[in-house]
Amino acid sequence: MEKQIKKEHVAPWEKAFDRVLTPLEEFIHRQTTSGILLMLCAIVALYIANSQWYEAYHHLLQAPFTIGMPGFQLSMSLHHWINDGLMALFFFLVGLELKREILVGELADPKQAIFPIVAAIGGMLVPVLIYMSINSEGHAFDGWGVPMATDIAFALGTLALLGSRVPKNLLTFLVALAIVDDLGAVLVIAVVYTESINLLALTAAGVMLLLLVSLNLGGIRRPLPYVLIGVVLWIAMLKSGVHATLAGIFLAFTIPMRPKYDPKRFLAQITGMIGLIQKAYQREESILKNGELRSRVQALGEGVQLVQAPAQTLEHKMHLPSAYLVIPIFSLANAGIPIDWSSFGSIITHPVSMGIALGLVFGKLIGIAGFSWVAVKVGLTTLPQGLNFKHIVGAALMGGIGFTMSIFIAELGFAHHAQDLLMAKTGVLLASLVAGISGFFWLYFTFEKSEK
Fold first, then answer.
1. pLDDT tens for each residue of 95-151
2. Nearest to 410 by CA among 66, 149, 109, 57
3. What is the dihedral of CA 226, 228, 234, 236, to 10 degrees?
4. SS in 3 state form for the chain?
5. What confidence tens digit (pLDDT) does each residue in 372-408 have?
6. Could you tell me the end-to-end alpha-carbon distance of the chain, in angstroms, rounded to an integer?
7. Taking Cα atoms as reference points, which of 171, 174, 234 lies closest to residue 401?
8. What is the rounded CA–CA span in Å between residue 425 and residue 407?
9. Mean pLDDT across the stretch 39-59?
């Protein structure tokens, strides 16, 4: 009875001390929730685009928006601010995740990393080849990068619906796969989808990047200097012609991953601080009346924050705005596709939409599962513990969900061809729907619920 009463009176802040999540578990939790929210926003955008509000929706996205002061202003449409500005925050988070995975995560151990890397390479290469075989010339060829990306939020959100049917190692594999996938997409955006170069602005961006590296090597651990220089880096990238969102990746890779952390000194300081907090509490229990108790608790909190790596702290803080603000807004701004049902047959058989759809659904399946199988058979790597090739086929089907990054690349590749852009987005949405449903039912009917 006493235990039950204590359990019922546990405050939320007390639960926070007991909640211990690894970076991977936190990442999966955030991305799962983001995926579900992303689905809802995509549905809302599609509804608006096919309703009487489409004109207002289109007009709002094209409305000019200006920031700055006379003599120094940035003016772009709201749609461009979302895709070039807001999405830089998303790429910043992607960069932090990439850096963590490479240094201390699933990609840090070469033996563990080979399997998802090989699978990701197959999952990028085969869809591109399928698309190129259908769209081998003209401006339609520019969309070859669209089917190479997997949307991790959508994929994990769909996997979450399967509950205990999905082994944890399958989630880990899909996360590592999608992160390598993101790296490939980022490289394609940087190298391929750059129209013209402003050398002066690019030089300024290079100087900012050197400053950021100098801060890292100089031992600066406070985030603010990095953020301020990062904003200048983004402006320089915007003016340079190289896509501005890549500033988020560059900034993330310069932020320190290792803290100035001495375990013995930290434990000694924490032990001493707790003793001082106990003495202050004995004099006055109310933290509202006890100024010393309040200041000691605040100092403890600040010390715990400072002992963590800056990149680790920023990744934790950026998950919330990225999952619940940036990606949903991007979805609302880019998933609104007007569909003419009377000509739907000709839309899905259009070379662009068909190339993307076949690339995502069949290309991902063949590339991920096929390359994984070959890599295991030739002895290059081994299957992760607890997984078999039926699991890998399910993950490969889920890999065909290509929403966020695919639409983003489509916006770049078909920026001057509105009809092809419409076909590309239709192909992405159709493929994501087919891949998600196929992957869900494959895993649902192939595997029983695991006993706990």
1. 888 788 788 776 777 777 899 899 999 999 999 999 999 998 888 998 999 999 888
2. 149
3. -110
4. CHHHHHHHCCCHHHHHHHCCCCHHHHHHHHHHHHHHHHHHHHHHHHHHHCCCCHHHHHHHHHCEEEEEECCEEEEEEHHHHHHHHHHHHHHHHHHHHHHHHHHCCCCCCHHHHHHHHHHHHHHHHHHHHHHHHHCCCCHHHHHHHHHHCCCHHHHHHHHHCCHHHCCHHHHHHHHHHHHHHHHHHHHHHHHCCCCCCCHHHHHHHHHHHHHHHHHHHCCCCCHHHHHHHHHHHHHHHHHHCCCCCHHHHHHHHHCCCCCCCCHHHHHHHHHHHHHHHHHHHHHCCCCCCCHHHHHHHHHHHHHHHHCCCHHHHHHHHHHHHHHHHHHHHHHHHHCCCCCCHHHHHHHHCCHHHHHHHHHHHHHHHHHHHHHHHHHHHCCCCCCCCCCCHHHHHHHHHHCCCCHHHHHHHHHHHCCCCHHHHHHHHHHHHHHHHHHHHHHHHHHHHHCCCCCC
5. 999 999 988 888 888 899 999 999 999 998 888 888 8
6. 26
7. 174
8. 6
9. 88
Specify the pLDDT at position 366: 96
Neighbour tally for 212: CB within 10 Å = 22
Which amino acid is it at 91? Answer: F
pLDDT digits (tens, 9 = 90+) for 232-279: 999 998 888 777 878 888 999 999 887 766 667 777 787 888 888 888
Q: Are 181 and 149 in contact (CB under 8 A)?
A: yes
Please state which of the ranges 14-23, 63-72, 202-211, 388-397 shows the lowest mean pLDDT: 14-23
Query: CATH topology for 56-65+105-192+319-452?
Result: Na+/H+ antiporter like fold (1.20.1530)
Q: What is the CA radius of gyration of the chain?
A: 24
Query: Of 321, 311, 307, 306, whose CA–CA distance to 230 is shortest?
Result: 311
Decide: pTM greater than 0.85.
Answer: no
Rounded to whole angstroms, how far apart are CA atoms 383 and 392? 9
> b/e map of 219-231 (b: 16 or more CB within 10 Å)?
ebbebeebeebbe
Where exactly are the structural domains of the chain? Answer: 56-65+105-192+319-452, 263-305
pLDDT, position 128:
95
